[in-house]
């Protein structure tokens, strides 16, 4: 067997550079590059290999390890999981900074390879700088924190262990049902140790992503369920998007006159004006989708993990005879809510069901058309909403009005919009009208604050020819915006629209809805009289902050200023931050939806007690599993 003598770090990069996937006959280079920040636990090992002239993988210098992970996730998500990146860090705090990003990738089923540096495998210099020592278990290091949020976890303690570690890592990364964060911890001494690696390990490797064909019995059972239903409803989840099953979903719904609601991950797979598309469903869903869902006697969940926002904490489906049909490549998700599992590819399953159930029609009649028309009128109204001025008399914009103007008039129809936390995802799931397929990029499985700007950078790297717009609240911007500097450094023009309402008002709304006085969520100075955060509002100039990073800073308080700012941003050649001042309570609110939260059952506040009683009553109406 022919071998090549390389350090573990060098062999790792050569392996990554030779990984390909094949989907529907198309062969695609799988690993584009590496995001990372060098520290002593990575720079002279894996870093030496990255710096070598013969390294073909792109290296992107991140400014925060969590941001690096989010950028890699944004890249892979926008590529429908057909291209990905690795993320590397030093040991200790650098590694731990990536744990949140790893959790985000795993929850959203997005492939990202995390390569945290680790303590010396030989243990001779222990404890080294940034090493965490656990007295009762010396094998436990900071990198073990990734175990809880990784789909596969490994540690390479000898150079030759790299081979089995990488084969297993890519087994998971390329499996649509299993993919997510994969963590392979790299002790800093082992990274630089040499080994005679077989050329076979380093050679080109093609991972074939096969579509799982639905079995005859599965289709027969699903067809029987469909034909027995009078009012079926489809939930369009992220699996529809990743399977490229949008056309098949449209054909299925048209053939059988079945409406569908969209999850955050599924939204944008089918365009907004499709007659069967009722927009978002669930706690952040539309009036149309939620009203129809309450009557449905069969819920066909296609590629959805049936999270609590999608199902209104299992409360949404009020028809006592409602059945669940779970079409999913992951058995874990297909069985949720006591569903009839159909474990197979979404595209092939929808095709097969459309053939098998020919002649069937739902009994919705004109209800779907009327519900959609009523919702369209409501969205039109929201798009024209005005906000009350600030207490000092200065103008403010309505958050929904800003989204409407961006969506309806100001942005190109093929611009990719990215968001991920706060009240913005709620509004966008309800009212954003997707006019070009796959331009709605939302992370809401983990609802991770700080995803937006980093993921927009990853999205721009994936599609440099498209306008990429991060729509972010002031809270999420403050949480993590450092990859704006990376965008400047890489000359990757992204547009960041900051909707500044001076606080965490999404959570303030939730807090107040459960009877609690406004506390700890508004951005105010501490009051000398009460000792609480009840003083003057904290004012921030986000445009100036963007300028300090090297971006173009723009401001808007009126529709006219917003229009001018967006035009200037689109003409810019460099990253842009648009600081938009919005009213605190100008987002959308619940449309006949519900969400179960842990309201205090004992309180001196009668409003909290009342809220707990109402919560208990609604909980009793929800499905139990």
Question: Could you characterize the architecture of this molecule?
Answer:
By secondary structure, the chain is of the alpha/beta class. The protein has three domains: 3-209, Rossmann fold; 216-374, Rossmann fold; 385-502 and 539-581, Thiamin diphosphate (ThDP)-binding fold, Pyr/PP domains (Rossmann fold, 3-Layer(aba) Sandwich), CATH 3.40.50. It is built from 25 helices and 23 strands. The strands form five sheets. The protein has a six-stranded parallel β-sheet, sandwiched between helices. A six-stranded parallel β-sheet has the order 14-13-12-15-16-17, with helices on both faces. Helix 6 (161-173) links the parallel strand 8 and strand 9.
Task: Provide a quick synopsis of the model.
It contains 25 helices and 23 strands. By secondary structure, the chain is α/β, with parallel strands linked by helices. The strands form five sheets. It has a six-stranded parallel sheet with strand order 5-4-6-7-9-8, with helices on both faces. A six-stranded parallel sheet has the order 14-13-12-15-16-17, sandwiched between helices. Strands 19-18-20-21-23-22 form a six-stranded parallel sheet, with helices on both faces.
């Amino acid at each position: 067997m022919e071998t090549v003598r390389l350090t573990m770090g060098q062999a790792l990069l050569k392996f990554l550079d030779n990984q390909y996937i094949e989907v529907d006959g198309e062969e695609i280079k799988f690993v584009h590059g590496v995001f990372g920040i060098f520290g002593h636990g990575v720079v002279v090992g894996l870093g030496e290999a990255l710096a070598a002239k013969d390294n073909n993988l792109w290296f992107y210098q991140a400014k925060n390890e969590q941001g690096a992970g989010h950028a890699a996730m944004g890249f892979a998500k926008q590529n429908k999981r057909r291209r990905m990146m690795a993320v590397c860090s030093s040991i200790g705090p650098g590694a731990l900074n990536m744990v949140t990003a790893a959790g985000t990738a795993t929850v959203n089923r997005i492939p990202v390879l995390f390569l945290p540096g680790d303590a010396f495998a030989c243990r001779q210099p222990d404890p080294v700088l940034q090493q965490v020592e656990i007295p009762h278990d010396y094998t436990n290091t900071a990198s073990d924190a990734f175990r809880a949020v990784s789909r596969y976890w490994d540690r390479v303690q000898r150079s030759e262990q790299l081979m089995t570690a990488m084969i297993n890592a890519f087994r998971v990364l390329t499996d649509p049902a299993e993919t997510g964060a994969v963590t392979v911890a790299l002790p800093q001494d082992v990274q630089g140790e040499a080994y005679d690696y077989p050329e076979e390990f380093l050679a080109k490797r093609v991972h074939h992503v096969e579509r799982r064909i639905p079995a005859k019995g599965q289709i027969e059972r699903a067809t029987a369920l469909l034909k027995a239903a009078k009012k079926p409803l489809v939930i369009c989840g992220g699996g529809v998007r990743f399977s490229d099953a949008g056309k098949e979903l449209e054909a299925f719904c048209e053939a059988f006159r079945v409406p569908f609601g969209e999850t955050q991950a599924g939204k944008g797979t089918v365009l907004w004006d499709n007659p069967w598309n009722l927009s978002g469903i669930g706690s952040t869903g539309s009036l149309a989708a939620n009203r129809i869902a309450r009557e449905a006697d069969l819920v066909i969940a296609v590629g959805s993990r049936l999270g609590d926002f999608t199902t209104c904490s299992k409360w949404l489906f009020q028809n006592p005879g409602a059945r669940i049909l779970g079409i999913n490549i992951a058995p874990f998700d297909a069985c949720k809510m006591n569903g009839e599992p159909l474990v197979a590819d979404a595209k092939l399953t929808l095709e097969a069901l459309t053939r098998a159930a020919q002649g069937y029609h739902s009994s919705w009649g004109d209800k779907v058309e009327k519900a959609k028309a009523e919702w369209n009128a409501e969205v039109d109204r929201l798009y024209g909403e005005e906000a009350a001025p600030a207490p000092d008399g200065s103008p403010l914009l309505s958050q929904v009005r800003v989204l409407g103007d961006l969506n309806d008039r100001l942005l190109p129809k093929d611009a990719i919009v990215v968001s991920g936390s706060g009240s913005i995802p709620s509004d966008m799931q309800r009212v954003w009208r997707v006019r070009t397929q796959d331009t709605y990029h939302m992370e809401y499985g983990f609802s991770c604050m700080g995803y937006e700007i980093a993921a927009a950078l990853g999205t721009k790297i994936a599609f440099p020819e498209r306008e990429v717009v991060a729509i972010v609240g002031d809270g999420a911007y403050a949480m993590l915006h450092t990859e704006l500097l990376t965008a400047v450094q890489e000359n990757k023009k992204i547009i960041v629209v900051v909707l500044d309402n001076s606080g965490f008002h999404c959570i303030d709304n939730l807090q107040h809805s459960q009877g609690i006085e406004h506390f700890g969520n508004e951005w105010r100075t501490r009051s000398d009289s009460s000792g609480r955060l009840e003083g003057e509002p904290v004012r921030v100039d986000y445009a100036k902050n963007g300028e300090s990073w090297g971006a173009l800073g723009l401001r808007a308080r009126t529709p006219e200023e917003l229009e001018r700012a967006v035009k200037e941003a689109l003409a810019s050649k460099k990253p842009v931050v648009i600081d938009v001042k919005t009213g605190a309570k100008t987002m959308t609110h619940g449309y006949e939806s519900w969400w179960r939260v842990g309201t205090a059952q004992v309180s001196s506040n009668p409003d909290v007690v009342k809220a707990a009683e109402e919560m208990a009553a609604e909980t009793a109406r929800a499905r139990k599993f």
